[in-house]
Amino acid sequence: MSQIVKSMKTSLETTDDGNEDNIQQTQIYAKKSFNRFGDELFGHILSYLTFKDRFQYECVSKRFQRRIFESVVYIDIYAFNGFIRQNTTIAQTLATIARKCPNIETIDSIQLREFYGSVYKVLTIFHNSCQYLRQIYCLLRSDYYQLIQRFGPMMTRIHVYDPLAKHSLIQCHRLSHLRVYHHLSDVFDTTSGQLLANNLHTFSFNHSLTASGVLFEAFIAGNQTLKSLTIYPSIDCSKNMNEVTERLSRLPQLRELTLHLHLTDCQTLNSLPFCPQLKRLKLDLKEEINPQMLDPLKHCRRLTHLTIHSIGPKFDTNSLFNCGNHWPRLQYLSIEDWFYERGVGFLSHISRLPALQTLKS
Amino acid sequence: MADNADHIDGDDNEDVRAQQNLIKIKLKSSEGGIYECGLTAAKMSDLVKNMVESLGTDAVVTTEPIILGNEAVTDAALKKIIEWVEFHWDDPPVDHDFEDEKDRRNEELSHWDKQFIDVDDQALLFDVIAAANYMDIKGLVEVGAKHICSKIRGKSCQEVREMLKITNDFTAEEEDAIHKENAWIYAKD
């Protein structure tokens, strides 16, 4: 080894006179050099660097500089949060970033909450440089009139924090993911009652007292495409979600369901046998899990992922009795509660799951 | 046992995959070494999969080994690659209902993969990555790429050059200019 290093030094010091030793040493050197990879693989490996790291390592070499940004297709503009906070003149820097990353297809602005002016400015700058830009994720506010006018047709994921902003939804024709921070009524026009978002892929809302069943019925009619649904409880509502969940069987594409349930709301789970197509289920329960409660789940035979979060006092191990027969495809099981001790019974039930790969408990 | 709601989708049948992996095929490195590998495991390589499909499984099992002519497929690299596919062949198949591949990109490597890819000999490490790329084993290329990027993280540019055996072809002025352009990354959130 020391000999190789020694002769390598010599070969670097002397000019290449084409003798065989030199060529051999260059090859040994080349096998350990990152430069041995072709452009495509070279760029692909660097695509696993974070967005900021790419800028840090741009100046490693000219070849790094050429390849390190080409795989940037998504950016979260929260990456600029600190910079925007501390600087009033950001346009030039952002224009430079946009120029370096011409292949951006998706801009995520959901986390950048505070600076409306900045969101608009950032989007405009990137829109000018990135010809492939076609998806924008955005947190919608009622004063985003100009933003919606210009970028509405590109918005594919939206969070509606401010119910007054909901009327802009109708201008976002390509919307696929929607989160409303309040009630289901946030996706309906207040005066006409018209459904403001159709053909969604992913949706989440807070369950409330007011006519959830009727509104959900209308929502389902316009969103037969729905694949993923999350329901949070409202603070002011302890009513069970039964009137919503009993309608879930009419969503033929539904594969993923997340439910945050109130105390004494075990009735809600009784609807699950009517959703045999579910693959991923997350339950956030505010009470003790007992075998009876989880009984309806045994009909969800296609489950691949199951997460149960409980702040109840104890997880009854017998809830998982015979689980291997009920969930032949379960790969991922996560159980979080306040009761840490898992007995032999727990493990012996779990060990009967034939496809299990990941257990978090 | 027959349950209508539980029919098997397409090629995902676990039992068939397990049985097929009992069938051994031979792979030949560019250095001439011949190694056995389970059929299901070997088919994690799209290159091998296509060859098996065009030649027919019977031909592959009974006749000559499959020749992997790329110079990165050394004996040592091929042995590592077979070790990887023999460990991973029964990974759950990609579920097209979800963005599994996108999610996996951001996931940390498993403990097993970390130990597997932490190879001291950099020439061998790069051979494994280049060979996996040639054989079109996306999962293994990803493991290699994540490993290299985790090694880069936290190092200075000069340390990265030393590690990756790259020479700096920027002038000091050019390097300064790039640093100035990229100063925004150091702003605190």
From TrEMBL, chain A:
<feature type="domain" description="F-box">
    <location>
        <begin position="38"/>
        <end position="68"/>
    </location>
</feature>
<dbReference type="InterPro" id="IPR032675">
    <property type="entry name" value="LRR_dom_sf"/>
</dbReference>
<dbReference type="InterPro" id="IPR001810">
    <property type="entry name" value="F-box_dom"/>
</dbReference>
<dbReference type="Pfam" id="PF00646">
    <property type="entry name" value="F-box"/>
</dbReference>
<dbReference type="InterPro" id="IPR036047">
    <property type="entry name" value="F-box-like_dom_sf"/>
</dbReference>
<protein>
    <recommendedName>
        <fullName>F-box domain-containing protein</fullName>
    </recommendedName>
</protein>
From TrEMBL, chain B:
<feature type="domain" description="SKP1 component dimerisation">
    <location>
        <begin position="138"/>
        <end position="185"/>
    </location>
</feature>
<comment type="similarity">
    <text>Belongs to the SKP1 family.</text>
</comment>
<dbReference type="GO" id="GO:0016567">
    <property type="term" value="P:protein ubiquitination"/>
</dbReference>
<keyword id="KW-0833">Ubl conjugation pathway</keyword>
<dbReference type="InterPro" id="IPR016072">
    <property type="entry name" value="Skp1_comp_dimer"/>
</dbReference>
<dbReference type="InterPro" id="IPR016897">
    <property type="entry name" value="SKP1"/>
</dbReference>
<comment type="pathway">
    <text>Protein modification; protein ubiquitination.</text>
</comment>
<feature type="domain" description="SKP1 component POZ">
    <location>
        <begin position="24"/>
        <end position="88"/>
    </location>
</feature>
<dbReference type="InterPro" id="IPR011333">
    <property type="entry name" value="SKP1/BTB/POZ_sf"/>
</dbReference>
<protein>
    <recommendedName>
        <fullName>SKP1-like protein</fullName>
    </recommendedName>
</protein>
<dbReference type="InterPro" id="IPR001232">
    <property type="entry name" value="SKP1-like"/>
</dbReference>
<dbReference type="Pfam" id="PF03931">
    <property type="entry name" value="Skp1_POZ"/>
</dbReference>
<dbReference type="InterPro" id="IPR036296">
    <property type="entry name" value="SKP1-like_dim_sf"/>
</dbReference>
<dbReference type="Pfam" id="PF01466">
    <property type="entry name" value="Skp1"/>
</dbReference>
<dbReference type="InterPro" id="IPR016073">
    <property type="entry name" value="Skp1_comp_POZ"/>
</dbReference>
<dbReference type="GO" id="GO:0006511">
    <property type="term" value="P:ubiquitin-dependent protein catabolic process"/>
</dbReference>
